[in-house]
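User: Predict the structure for this protein chain, please.
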Amino acid sequence: MPTAQNLNQQFAIAGQLTFRDDASGLVIAEFNNAQATAALCLQGAHLMSWQPKSQAKPVVWLSRDMKVAAGKSIRGGAPICWPWFGAHPSEASFPGHGYARTVPWRVLESGTEPNGATRLTLRLVESDKTRAQWQHSSNVDLTVIVGETLRMELITENTGTQDFVIGEALHTYLQISDIGAVSVQGLEGCEYWDKVGGSNLRKQDGAITFSSETDRVYINTPETCVIEDGTLGRRIHIKKSGSLSTVVWTPWTEKAEKMGDMGQPDGWREMVCVESVNAIDNLVTVAAGNKHSLIVEYSASKI
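Assistant: Here is the predicted structure, written as structure tokens:
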């Protein structure tokens, strides 16, 4: 794979985008423009952080105990789950949430948007290992636009002659004051599969609040979600298209301790995952020769 020096020669943008070699051997893209800062690891096309310069705290959460390592997913940021979400439907040995978040991606293009935001597009690199888990002919691209808002577009192109089905997610960890002090709005009245409560189908009553482990897959939900955080005095808006499932997740104390990289002892209290997903009832069929786009735009506003 190209070194940071190679990438800087081709894709760096003065005053906006540079690449650096991490001690892990992986390459990190670093954004710093007039509107925001962000970082992205080329392994997994994994957006690690994002903070608009109008915000005193990051909007995308990254664990203080996170590790960057070849073949391992980073705890926090926005991992890409693809081409399945959760466990593989038939192969127990395949990794949960697919392989996209732990394999190399290559840079295709960089640029500056008319509003001054910075754009970076990457493509998943296929290998014998990926083809052993996914036999379909496809291209998978991610475009990230870093500015006062953060826009992420995950594009799956079926380059073969047969239709295929995918599950996918932008598994985004979002920075909050404390899990007990926030609510998630926008999913009132929606049905969800309760993964903590025995995978039962339930209906959401009012805004979502948190007092224990929560792992829910809300189905048939194209709506914008809002995280209301009175302590930080802000709302985080998650606006999406091409996604009909929304996952809301917090591990709580016992599970966070077992995970070991959540920023112990209480780092997990400063994040909540509101994920833009296609899963379970909302898997996507991508017809031969066609594309599917999952687009999410994140923004923060004052209460």
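The chain has one domain: 4-302.
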